[in-house]
Every structure is written in structure tokens, then in C-alpha cells.
């Protein structure tokens, strides 16, 4: 911990692919950590490093000054914050609540309102940068909520991320994350189609990635997930089912805004095929399965 950073009592709920690494950085930064996860075994490593297990989100909240959550779906966020054994019912006055799950802007605003009525502050602060960014503490963090809440959260964000931006009022972090996911949706189509074309043309896919990965088509996703597509390595960094959740939230927001985004709609449709085919627990690079099937290389989907 730096000389100016203050040690805080931090609660962390949701210790999956992202949460485990993020919580670990807070321990490394010298904060006290109270943890809860639906499946307790995922907390064992952190407990071994000094974190304290609590039996419910409410118990984490009661023991902490700041509570951070990285769970799965909006329904999990709602249960963890607004349920009877949840954070808002059990945190103490003055607590800072930070949801870093990718969730809906509307739910973020509802939680912020519920928090204010109990004398607490809530931020929505979803992240980008993948499991790698979580591991290396280099996430991009986009926050919505009050200036005061953001200022208090900043030292914690700095332990987990490198690009940290206050986007506006409650819900603005989630709206920014939707803009991020919309860009990813069409990029994943583009990466898959590029490789499908190269494969159909009989090129060496490794060579194609080497070449186009340094030219104008280069991107984080092409360079990071392209090689996994080529190796048919569909192990999850970011689950297909979570991405379908994100695109569904974005499409619902588009409907509310009267906005038609055909790239996003197509990506959701193709990813839904993966879920229907039983591939929801794979990583988002599994989109390439849809294209190999379309090319007749495999009948997997
Ligand atoms: P994950 O591995 O499924 O982690 C979610 C964790 O939350 C799981 O350990 C789960 O418990 C726990 N959880 C869910 N509901 C809970 C509840 N009601 N009470 C307590 N714990 C609960 O998923 P992830 O990849 O870490 O992603 C987490 C969130 O970050 C998602 O919203 C995702 O869209 C977003 N995100 C992910 C990435 C990425 O690259 N992975 C990047 C940016 C954002 P169990 O252990 O019982 O399943």
C-alpha cells in the first residue's frame, strides 16, 4: 500500500474468473478483505491468503466499509443488493457499494436510489480487459455515480485497473460498458469471418494472423482470440452465456432508445446458436464454431 493510501475494510462478493483476481489485488494492496461466493470452494485460495469468509452478502456488508460485487447476471446483482439477506439491508450508514458486474443501467440506478435512502453511496463500475486484465491488474474501469463515491473508490480501482474513468451519474458506467460490448460484438463477427475466409481459401491461418495482426485490421480481439480460434481452444476467459446476457441488455437499451443496430442483433443471434448448441460455458472465441459449421468443416453447432 502506498504511503497515502488508507487501509480499508473491503467486502468482495463473486469470486469467479474476474472476481478472484480482482479481490487478490485488494489483499495484495494491504486492505482487509471479507469474502462471499455462491460456491465457497472458490474462496479457499483467498482465505489462505488472509481473507475472511462470511456466510451471506449481508454478513459481508455488515463487516465492511466498502462492498464490491462481480457476480454474473442482473438477477444475481438484484438478489445480492436488494434481497432480504442482501447488501443494502445490512450495510451500515456511510458504506460505499460498488457493483463491477456487467449489468443493466436501469438496475444500477435502482440500487443507487435504494442506497441513498439508507444513507449509503452506490457506484456501477463495470470493467473491460478480460481475465488477463483482471490477473495483471490492468483493467479498464468505467464508473457511474456521485463524485464523492468515485473519489473514495479510486484507490481501490487503482489496485485493479489502469484506465479508470468517471463517466457520469448512476447507470453511466453500465451504458459505457454496453458501448464496449457493442464494439466487441461486431469485432468478433469480423475476426471469425476473416479466418473463415482464409481457411476456405486454403491459406495458413497462423500466417494470416501474423500478417493481418500487425496491419490495419489488428485488434486486441484479433490478436488475443484469433490464435485460440485457429487452435480450436474454446476454453473460457469470457463465457459465451455472459456475452449473450450483455448483448441482450444492449439490445433492450437500443429498443428503449429507438436505435437499430444490425451488427449487434446479428451477433446476438449467432451467439444464441452457440448457447442452444450447448456451448454457453465456452469462451467467446467459440463463435468460430458457427463459421466452421457454415463452411461445412464441422457440424458442431
Ligand atoms: P464467473 O466466473 O461466472 O464469476 C461470477 C461469480 O459470481 C461466480 O463465482 C458465481 O458463483 C458468483 N455469483 C453469482 N451469483 C451469485 C450470488 N447470487 N451470490 C454469490 N455469488 C454469486 O464470471 P466472470 O467471468 O468472473 O464474470 C463476472 C461478471 O463480469 C459478469 O457479469 C461478466 O459479464 C463480467 N465480465 C467478465 C469478463 C471476462 O472476461 N470474464 C470481462 C469483463 C466483464 P459460482 O462460483 O457459484 O458460480
TrEMBL record:
<keyword id="KW-0560">Oxidoreductase</keyword>
<comment type="similarity">
    <text>Belongs to the HIBADH-related family.</text>
</comment>
<feature type="domain" description="3-hydroxyisobutyrate dehydrogenase-like NAD-binding">
    <location>
        <begin position="171"/>
        <end position="291"/>
    </location>
</feature>
<dbReference type="InterPro" id="IPR002204">
    <property type="entry name" value="3-OH-isobutyrate_DH-rel_CS"/>
</dbReference>
<dbReference type="InterPro" id="IPR006115">
    <property type="entry name" value="6PGDH_NADP-bd"/>
</dbReference>
<dbReference type="InterPro" id="IPR013328">
    <property type="entry name" value="6PGD_dom2"/>
</dbReference>
<dbReference type="GO" id="GO:0016054">
    <property type="term" value="P:organic acid catabolic process"/>
</dbReference>
<dbReference type="GO" id="GO:0050661">
    <property type="term" value="F:NADP binding"/>
</dbReference>
<keyword id="KW-0520">NAD</keyword>
<dbReference type="Pfam" id="PF03446">
    <property type="entry name" value="NAD_binding_2"/>
</dbReference>
<feature type="active site">
    <location>
        <position position="177"/>
    </location>
</feature>
<dbReference type="GO" id="GO:0051287">
    <property type="term" value="F:NAD binding"/>
</dbReference>
<dbReference type="InterPro" id="IPR015815">
    <property type="entry name" value="HIBADH-related"/>
</dbReference>
<dbReference type="GO" id="GO:0016491">
    <property type="term" value="F:oxidoreductase activity"/>
</dbReference>
<protein>
    <submittedName>
        <fullName>NAD(P)-dependent oxidoreductase</fullName>
    </submittedName>
</protein>
<dbReference type="InterPro" id="IPR008927">
    <property type="entry name" value="6-PGluconate_DH-like_C_sf"/>
</dbReference>
<dbReference type="InterPro" id="IPR029154">
    <property type="entry name" value="HIBADH-like_NADP-bd"/>
</dbReference>
<dbReference type="Pfam" id="PF14833">
    <property type="entry name" value="NAD_binding_11"/>
</dbReference>
<dbReference type="InterPro" id="IPR036291">
    <property type="entry name" value="NAD(P)-bd_dom_sf"/>
</dbReference>
<feature type="domain" description="6-phosphogluconate dehydrogenase NADP-binding">
    <location>
        <begin position="9"/>
        <end position="168"/>
    </location>
</feature>
Amino acid at each position: 500500500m502506498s504511503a497515502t493510501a488508507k487501509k480499508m475494510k473491503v467486502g468482495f462478493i463473486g469470486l469467479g474468473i474476474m472476481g478472484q483476481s480482482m479481490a487478490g489485488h485488494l489483499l495484495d494492496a494491504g486492505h482487509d478483505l471479507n469474502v462471499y461466493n455462491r460456491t465457497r470452494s472458490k474462496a479457499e485460495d483467498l482465505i489462505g491468503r488472509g481473507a475472511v469468509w462470511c456466510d451471506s452478502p449481508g454478513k459481508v456488508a455488515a463487516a465492511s466499509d466498502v462492498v464490491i460485487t462481480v457476480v454474473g447476471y442482473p438477477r444475481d446483482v438484484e438478489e445480492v443488493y436488494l434481497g432480504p439477506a442482501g447488501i443494502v439491508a445490512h450495510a451500515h450508514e456511510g458504506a460505499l457499494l460498488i457493483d463491477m458486474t456487467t449489468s443493466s443501467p436501469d438496475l444500477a440506478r435502482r440500487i443507487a436510489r435504494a442506497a441513498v435512502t439508507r444513507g449509503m453511496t452506490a457506484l456501477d463500475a463495470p470493467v473491460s480487459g478480460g481475465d488477463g486484465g483482471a490477473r495483471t491488474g490492468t483493467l479498464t474501469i468505467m464508473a457511474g455515480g456521485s463524485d464523492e463515491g468515485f473519489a473514495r473508490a479510486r484507490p481501490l480501482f487503482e489496485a485493479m485497473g489502469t484506465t479508470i474513468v468517471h463517466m457520469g451519474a448512476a447507470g453511466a458506467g453500465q451504458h459505457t460498458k454496453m458501448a464496449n460490448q457493442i464494439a466487441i460484438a461486431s469485432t468478433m463477427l469480423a475476426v471469425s469471418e476473416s479466418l473463415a475466409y482464409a481457411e476456405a481459401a486454403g491459406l495458413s491461418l497462423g500466417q494470416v494472423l501474423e500478417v493481418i495482426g500487425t496491419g490495419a485490421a489488428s485488434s486486441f480481439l484479433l490478436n488475443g482470440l484469433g490464435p485460440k480460434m485457429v487452435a480450436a481452444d474454446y476454453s473460457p476467459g469470457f463465457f459465451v452465456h455472459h456475452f449473450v446476457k450483455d448483448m441482450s441488455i444492449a439490445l433492450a437499451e437500443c429498443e428503449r432508445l429507438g436505435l437499430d443496430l444490425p451488427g449487434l442483433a446479428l451477433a446476438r443471434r449467432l451467439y444464441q446458436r452457440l448457447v442452444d448448441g450447448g456451448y454457453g460455458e465456452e469462451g467467446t472465441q467459440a463463435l468460430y464454431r458457427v463459421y466452421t459449421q457454415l463452411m461445412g468443416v464441422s457440424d458442431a453447432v
